[in-house]
Each structure stands twice: as C-alpha cells, then as structure tokens.
Amino acid sequence: MSTAPLASGSRSSSENLSPEEATVMGADQPQAETYAVEAWGDGFFAIGDRGTVQVRPDRDPSRQIDLHDLVNGLRERGYATPVLLHFGDLLSTVMSDLRRAFDEAITASEYQGGYAGVFPVKVNQQRGVVEDVSRLGAQLGFGLEAGSKPELLAVLALTVDQPDRLIVCNGFKEDRYIEFAMLAAKLGRAIVPVVENLDELHLVLEQAERFDVRPRIGVRVNLNTQGVGRWAGSSGIRAKFGLTLAEVLETVRLLRERGMLDCLQLLHCHMGSQMHDIRQVVGGVGELARIYSELRRLGAGVRYLDVGGGLGIDYDGSQTNFPFSRNYTLDEYAASVVHRVQSICDEAGVPHPTIVTESGRAMVAQQSVLVFDVLGANTFEPHTLPETVEGLVGPDREEPPRPLVDLYDAWTRLAPETLLECWHDAESARTEALNTFSLGYMTLEHRAEVEKIFWTLALRTRELAQGMDPMPEELAELDDLLCDVYFCNLSVFQSLPDCWAIDQVFPIMPIHRLDEAPTRRATLADLTCDSDGKIERFIDREDVKHWLPVHELRPDEPYLLGAFLVGAYQETLGDLHNLFGDTHAAHVRIDEEGRWWIEEIIEGDTVSEVLGYMQYDPAGLARRLRAECENSVKSGTMTVAESRGLLRAYESGLAGYTYLERGAGVAGEGR
Predict the structure, then answer these.
(1) What is the sign, positive or negative, of the torsion defined by CA atoms of 576, 571, 43, 71?
(2) Judgement on whether residues 166 and 283 belong to the same structural domain of the protein
(3) pTM of the predicted structure, to 2 decimals
(4) How many structural domains is the chain composed of?
(5) Does the residue 660 lie in any domain?
C-alpha cells in the first residue's frame, strides 16, 4: 500500500479500475446506477446535470436543492464538515405518505375504524427533530410514544394544549413514571400507560385511585409470531417486554373486579424493527387482532390496536426479503394491516379498532444526511519490477532466496490462460517467503521485493480476471483484497454506530463529481484509533458489497461523501469514542422555488465540552499548562513569545471542533 507518488513506469493510480469496469460502473451516464440512487432514494435524492446530489423534499424535480452547494454554504458560514443535515420538508412528505397510505387503505376496504401514527421518541431524541415530528403530527393526527420517564416529561411539554394527541407510555415503569402519567390524565390528556408486567398494573391502579382518575390502560402481549431480521430475538414468546396470555387474562380479572374493564383501551405488541418480510408482518397482525377480538368478547373496552413498529426502510433499494431492505411498499403494508385486522374483526363480529403504528424508523430515517470529507488515502499501486531475475540480487550481492525466485517466476508466467495457476503459485511463494523471513533467512530488502511483486501480480491478476466467465471465486475475492482505504473526517462510533454495532448498511456515495466515472474501490476508515472504526459494508442490489466506488483524490480539493437515511437511532446511540463529539447539525428548509435557508444550526461539541462530559475541568487544564509555560520561561527553555503562542494554540484547541478543521470556514475557523 502506498500514499506516495508512483515510481516512474508504474500504471497511473486512476487505473484502479479498467476502462471496461468504469463503463460498467456508469461512465457514460451520471452515476445513478452505480450508487442505486433512484432505488433507495425514493424520489427524494437524485443526481443533477452538474454531477451533484439533488435533494427533492416532495419528490418534485422543480423543487430541489444542490447538496454540494448547501455544504459549501455552510462552510461559508463557518461550519466545516462533518455536518448532519435535517430536511424538515422531506420529513413532512414522509409522514404525510404514511397518513395517506392508511387513509386510502381504510377507504378502499370500507374499514370502520381509524388510524393514528405514533412516533417513538427513542428513535431520534434530538429536540429539533422531535419538535418537527410533533408539529407535523398535530396536523396529521399523530401521537407520540415515550419509552422512559425523561421522554415522558419531554412529550408532556410538547403536547401542551393538545389534549387529543395520543401519548403511549412504554418501557419499565416505577411509581414516579406512573404518577406523571396519571397527572397527565388528570389534565385531560389522551395518555395510555402500557402495562409490561403485572406489578405495573398494580401501580397504575394505585396512582389512579390516588388522583381520582379513570385511566386509559394498555397491555403489551407477547405474540407467538416472531419477527425477522436483526431484531427477530426482540419479539416472540421470550421477548423482553410483554405479558403472557395468562397474565392478560389476570389483568382482565383484576380490572373486572374493580369495575374498570372499560379502562383497558389499548392492545400492544412488538414484532421487531426493520421487518423486511410482509408475510411475518401479516402473521403478527393477525395474531394480535385475534387476541383483540377475544378481549372484546370478554367485555374489555379495547379501542386501539397498536401493532408497534417494524415498518422497514429499503436501505439498498432492492425491495427484497433482505435484512436491510423490505419486500413490500408502504401502500402494501398499510393495505395488508388494514385488511388483516378487518377480516378477523368481521369474522368475530367485533368493532373495528383504531389501528396504531409506531413506525419511527420509517418516519425519520430518510430526512437526515451525514456529509463528511475524505482526508487522504492508502492505495494499492503496481510497482516497476526488474526485467530479469538477476535484478533481484541484494545490495551486497546476496542471491535471492528460492521463495522470491518462485514468486518472480509466477509473475513472468502470468497470462490469461495460466491465471489461476500463477495466482496459486504466487500465494504459496509469498507464504513461504514470509516464513523464511521470520526464521532469519531473508533480508529486509528481499522481503520488500516480495511485497512489491506480490501486490503488482495481484493487481494484474484482477485486471485479467475481468474477462473470465465464470470468474473463479478466489479471483473474485481480489476485489475485496485490493481495496484502497479512504480516511474520513468522522467517527463511526459517534455518527454511524450501527455500522459498527450491528453491521448496518447505509447508502454512502460522493455528493459531487458524479459526472465522472469513479475509478477507485475503497473502504472507509474514520478518525478513531480503534480498528473497528471503519466502514466496509456497502449497499448492493444483490447482497452486501465490501468496497465503495470512489473517485481519485485531487490535491487541495475537498472530496465529500454523504451517508443517507441515517435519521433513525444514529444520533441517539452515538458515543464519545476518542472524545469525538456531536457533529454540527443543520436544520434546512426549502421554499417552493427551490431556495434553501438554515432554520437552525446546533453547533457540534467543542473539545472543552467533550472534556467536561468526562469530568475534566478545561479551565483547570489550561491553568496547569500556563503554570508549566511560566516555569519554562523562568528556566530559559522557552521565550515569552513561544509561551504565549503555545497557550493561545491550547486555548483555541479547547474552544475548537473535535473533528479535523482543515479548510476551515471564514467565521469561527470551521466552528
């Protein structure tokens, strides 16, 4: 691998892909097919004539903005990348789509119940996003879900003067949590604490009696139907939350004894997150609807059927039964849920309930884009090799060891008809050479020659293998072996934690230069010193790809990448690995003429703020360094001017962005 210019006679680094490969990857057209933008973008993102990504908040090409221009505009305002962009207008479209899909399904089926979407605050707890969701939800008849006491307190404040907004309270609950819920009920709020275990039911009954309210009570039931995908284990009989059917019947008994069976108004389940198979969705909804009909038969006043979350996002655009996709459309999801509930209710002769969904991921994932810059690259390049084996003789005229000779021989015999044989020989010779060096029978110079020959041979083998049909599996693996590494100005652990934690794949692509064919393959490495701080899983319409098509870096020219569909969970789950803090977050609005403006910018963490989170005292740290500088001046090892310069740099560093500030903006030097 190399970060230095090629030696004379080497193939240009822009030839990481052959011309044929570059054409396949979209050289003749803007790179929409290369990055599958039209598939996962859902009409919200496209590639414009200038080769830049366009954002279309309502899918209308006449109302779009240039993402690259937007980032440059932020730089002019003094906000350097990495930066997280929130598009509230796009969020409005997504939430309206959800409302429309269920309304149309209800109308088409002549369903007699209603629909209410509920946003789980845990999916994205950032104030600006939750406020947008709350404001839009008020217009659409959507509610909010709190999964903890702090979330409930935030939700109560966001729904002042909105008594009809449905508030669903999930998660483990203690006296104080239930107390707040009952006080909200006393205020007239449509709040439903969902009972996760029988102890919580007793708490609800005690607090309801204390405040003299008849509460709306929900129960979460564990279904036999289990979800699919990464979160399948969070559902089913052994799920973390929820009552068994025996406990549901005990709940009915306790409420009946108190004359409160009408208070049991909501039935809830959790089928999992990112449900990619519609058949599992339909199966779970059917089981839940059957339990609902039985509760109605027993006299319960259930009026809400909460099918939970699970509505998937098509991260790779394949619309398949794949963990990071979904094999159904939004309209199909809504129609399937409505039809399944209706058919079971009609069969049982019970009223159609209001269907509630908690599709947080599907609401907010698309509205956020993370933009970050590439700092540099380690690349695989061919070397200029000796014309004969005699050129391998060492500086002290040592004869080359046999493994090196064998490797060179494989290089000289390399041809399309001997490709697989020569590759096998090269791998064997390299392994033997490394063992020889470890035993002390090979010089460092010869070991370096081994690396030069092997990687040059590997590059040439991959190039020749492109013409093979079918290509042997072990040669196909060269694509992964010979990837460049592009070093990026971000922390995976802070901004894309699911890439590290659960091997999530997000659409990632350059946001400019898309009128050029990408000629490199790369994995991405972040700023942290952790070996897991990398991205090496990328979307592919058939599976997962282990490299990203990228462009050759140009000296002194920023190269910007965007990670899309990152609005769900990533901000909430990010951590301070290596003390890299929150990025800048810009809330962007777009008018009807396609002009953008910044509604609000939440500045990213400074070094001082991050140190404070870890219980450091930044002022105290500066005092310590100031004292040391003064001692150095006193001892004569540092001048006063040097001392002042060091202290200014230190204090500026404390006030600065935690990320690299190369090419900082004019205001605040990248802050």
Answers:
(1) negative
(2) yes
(3) 0.89
(4) 4
(5) no
